[in-house]
Amino acid sequence: MRRSTVVSLVLLTAVAVPVTAGASHKPGHGPGTAESLSIVAKPNPVVYGAAVTIDGRLTSAARAGRNVILESDPFPYDDSFSNVGNVTTGASGNYSFTQLPGLNTRYRVRQGNLLSPAVTVLVRIRLGLRVSDRTPDRGERVRFFGRACPEHVGALVRVQRRAAGRWVTVARTRTQAATRCSTYSRRLRVFRDALYRAVVAGDDDHARGIGPTRFVDFD
User: What angle do CA 16, 20, 23 make, to 5 degrees?
Assistant: First the structure.
């Protein structure tokens, strides 16, 4: 087997192994019975203010009605995971949690002596976009503006136009301080019908934000 294939298989396997290993097994677990605890987060990335679902499955001879603990480690990551929820597995060993992370956060789950891998949930900056005039005269200066949440003062915002199947940056600005969130504003002279969007750069605690698209159509 090629080395690249082996690496890919390892990266795609998101299941847990026991925290402690030994020759003994739990009562009721026959020889060769493997236990595992999987974890997946969706959607990932998630937009700030939206919910993410953390779910997975306990694979075990006795998998129903088992207590699963969800632990989190928000940025800056220091491996100090704390308990943020408890659920009981279903008949098939499935479990599910709903979380509202405020910043990039690592999650893992624990069941008895099983510990899942950690999954990092990226939280995108929530970026809005409005235009002062969607049907301007050709050559008119149009104001592109919006809010970035949570507050990120001084973050770079790019106003982009769709052209030839790709997004092209046509203007840049920086976010300013405001109540709870940051704001940005940029005036741009427009000369053609086009689809626009805004993108704000991310940082260590949040992923980059992508605003909604707005179509500017000349009268």
Answer: 110
Residue pointed to by tokens 């000349």:
218
| Cβ–Cβ under 8 Å, residues 93 and 168 | no
Residue 56, both tokens: 């997975």
HEC letters along the chain: CCHHHHHHHHHHCCECEECCCCCCCCCCCCCCCCCEEECEEECCCEECCCCEEEEEEEECCCCCCCEEEEEEEECCCCCCCEEEEEEECCCCCEEEEEECCCCCEEEEEEECCEECCCEEECEECEECCEECCCCCCCCCEEEEEEEEECCCCCCEEEEEEEECCEEEEEEEEECEECCCCEEEEEEEECCCCEEEEEEECCCCCCECEECCCEEECCC
Burial (CB count <10 Å: 0-12, 13-18, 19+), residue 162: middle
Q: pLDDT (tens digit, 9 = 90+) per residue, 139-160?
A: 999 999 999 999 999 999 999 9
* 10-36 pLDDT per residue, tens: 333 344 545 433 333 343 344 445 899
The whole-angstrom separation of Cα 28 and Cα 31 is 10
Distance (Å, whole) CA 208 – CA 201: 5
Query: Residue holding tokens 């298989």?
Result: 9
Which residue type, as a one-letter code, is found at position 38? S
